[in-house]
Amino acid sequence: DEEDLSLYEQLCYWVRGPGFDYLSGCLVVVNALVLGIQIDWQARHVTNDLPWPFQALELLFCLAFMVELCLRAVVHGRKFFAPAVRKWHCLDLVLVGSQLLDIIFSTFTVN
Fold first, then answer.
1. Which of 89, 85, 54 is nearest to 69 (CA)?
2. CA angle at 31 for the pair 30 and 32, rounded to the nearest 5°
3. Which of 9, 26, 74, 94 could cross-link to 5 by cystine, CB 3.0-4.6 Å?
4. Contacts for 59 with CB less than 8 Å, ≥ 6 apart
């Protein structure tokens, strides 16, 4: 019975289930669409300065991907770096890390 499970057990059940993967996949697709719209906007306006909605969405997606990665790491523990999935998780770490660094550097860079 799901009500008898601890919070951690419920989290494990949810993260290991297909719904979490579908949600993560949808986030990737929506992020790609937003990036496409953002690049189109920048090409039409010939600027590197982004309006605040694009900046907010970029931050939101970065946070969502960080939470996703952290949840997977917490739930899978040492198995997070098991040989079968190590390459994918390392790729995720590099992508999320580079996105985070980009946000940090762009926040503190003065034009």
1. 89
2. 90
3. 9
4. 103
